[in-house]
């Protein structure tokens, strides 16, 4: 490329820059946060999740060797870092969601409080995750120990993210719970909205392609296989044509429900305790407790 070619390239780049910065184009993508705060950092949130995995399962994750006698020191130092990093990311989330762009002056305090609320919940989150690991071990004959499910299984990786994101979601933290959920989704192919309520001893075998919607309620000792969808049957709209937000539109699975690969369960219906949904079944009506729903039965009904 000679000097003339360089000159022409610079002119063309200048035209592209001018077009991208034109108000008619820029206005469609420009988002001003409160106090012009930076957007949340995906890199920092990834670090936070790594630190939380270490806090919840010491010895399984992280590079440092941890001794039982000194574990209190390691946990305290790690929690301090999590608190500081997470407070800032939640603050940015609040600023992102601020509708006025400049009136939110308490985002810093709200970020610190929401971060502390999550840390307060870590003992309970660990209890739930331990029950999930045990469910994975008991539900998969290929698993050699609960520890293997913690370290290797996509279900556990996803549930660590989900149980953390769900606490933030319950505490009305904007944006950050969804980012945390999507981090797991992109790695495992399991898509769980942070609003979904999932009780103890939950296991997803294989996992790829599972979708669990925002208003799902899943009871104790439930198991899903790959390709299962717990979704909405329809999307009601407001008078102006926009989708209604917050309505209850996803299924309820009572305790001890098993859903096999490829099944699709849609709408605010209830699958009764102990029911088994066979593979590739389409379900849009309530399922009685202890029922066995196969393709043949579903087609007949």
Automatic annotation (TrEMBL):
Keywords: Acyltransferase, Amino-acid biosynthesis, Transferase. GO terms for biological process: amino acid biosynthetic process. Coiled coil: none annotated. GO terms for molecular function: acyltransferase activity. This is Serine acetyltransferase.
């Amino acid at each position: 490329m000679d000097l003339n070619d360089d000159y022409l390239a610079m002119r063309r780049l200048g035209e592209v820059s001018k077009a991208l910065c034109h108000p008619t184009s820029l206005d469609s993508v420009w988002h001003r946060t409160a106090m012009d705060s930076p957007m949340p950092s995906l890199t920092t949130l990834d670090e936070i999740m790594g630190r939380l995995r270490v806090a919840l399962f010491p010895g399984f994750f992280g590079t440092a060797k941890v001794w039982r006698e000194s574990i209190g020191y390691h946990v305290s130092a790690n929690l301090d870092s999590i608190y500081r990093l997470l407070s800032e990311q939640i603050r940015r989330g609040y600023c992102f969601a601020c509708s006025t762009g400049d009136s939110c002056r308490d985002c810093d305090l709200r970020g610190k409080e929401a971060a502390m609320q999550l840390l307060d919940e870590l003992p309970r989150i660990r209890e739930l995750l331990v029950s999930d690991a045990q469910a994975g071990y008991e539900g998969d004959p290929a698993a050699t120990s609960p520890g293997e499910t913690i370290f290797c299984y996509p279900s556990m990786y996803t549930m660590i993210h989900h149980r953390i994101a769900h606490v933030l979601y319950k505490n009305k933290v904007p944006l950050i719970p969804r980012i945390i959920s999507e981090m797991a989704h992109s790695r495992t192919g399991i898509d769980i909205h942070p609003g979904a309520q999932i009780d103890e001893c939950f296991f997803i075998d294989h996992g790829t392609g599972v979708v669990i919607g925002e208003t799902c309620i899943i009871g104790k000792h439930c198991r899903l296989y790959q390709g299962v969808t717990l979704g909405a049957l329809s999307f009601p709209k407001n008078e102006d044509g926009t989708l209604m937000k917050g309505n209850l539109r996803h299924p309820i699975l009572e305790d001890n429900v098993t859903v096999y690969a490829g099944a699709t369960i849609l709408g605010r219906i209830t699958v009764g305790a102990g029911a088994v949904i066979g593979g590739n079944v389409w379900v849009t009506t309530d399922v009685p407790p202890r029922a066995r729903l196969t393709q043949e039965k579903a087609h007949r009904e």
